[in-house]
Amino acid sequence: MKHIGKLVLLSALLSSSLAFAQITEDPEDRREAGREPLRTQTPEGRPLPFGQRLRIGGGISSLQIGNAQIGTPFIIGVSPVVAYQASERLILGTGVNYVYYRYRLRLPNQTITDQFNQFGVRGFGMYEVVPSLVPNLFAHAEYEGNNIRYPDNVAREYRRRWVTAPLLGLTYSQRIGRLAGINLSALYNINYNADIYSRYVYGSPFVIRVSFF
Q: Where is this region: Disordered (predicted)?
């Protein structure tokens, strides 16, 4: 029975994968002619409607599974994105960030708990640099603002403030169909050393991100 269950699960996964491929496949595929599907117009040269140039997706911005015995936190962050294919090589987009922190430490006589939220917005642009040499490699510029919580050691309380982060770097996109893609970004936070509060958002000036849109 266990083997039968595994076969049924495998069949379901294969079926769903085929269905996804059919949904994301370009309806006017040009790959048989050795060319990638156009991103902003049909093969006949007609511009695609606004709605067909949109990409909706996002990713998990951070994930850490805490251990209550040693006091490490549980952290999970999500970052939904809406992007627009402005031209064959230019993508413009915006998104929101949300991170949830929970800290729990069990001591012999007490349990210390704490939880809070961090949220923000971002806008970005991606430009395909040299598609003839390295297809789907984009120069990536982004401006991000996050509302963080930080400790005020003088007042002995937590406060909140906005922290901005200009990010520059590269993104490689593995396309799926006409527009959708899996994106790997390597970015550098210009404000990291200039603003100590930036370290409450990212623990390093280098930001590695995986997203889907």
A: 25-49
Q: What is the pTM of this model?
A: 0.74
Residue 138 CA to residue 131 CA, distance in Å, equals 9
Q: Cα(122)–Cα(146) distance, rounded to whole angstroms?
A: 9
Torsion of CA 65, 66, 67, 70, to 10 degrees: 140
Q: List pLDDT tens digits, range 137-160.
A: 999 999 999 999 888 888 888 899
Name the burial class of residue 102, with classes exposed (0-12), middle (13-18) and buried (19+) by CB atoms within 10 angstroms of its CB.
Answer: middle
Cβ proximity of 146 and 189 under 8 Å: no
Amino acid letter, residue 83? A
Sequence ranges of the domains in the chain: 2-212
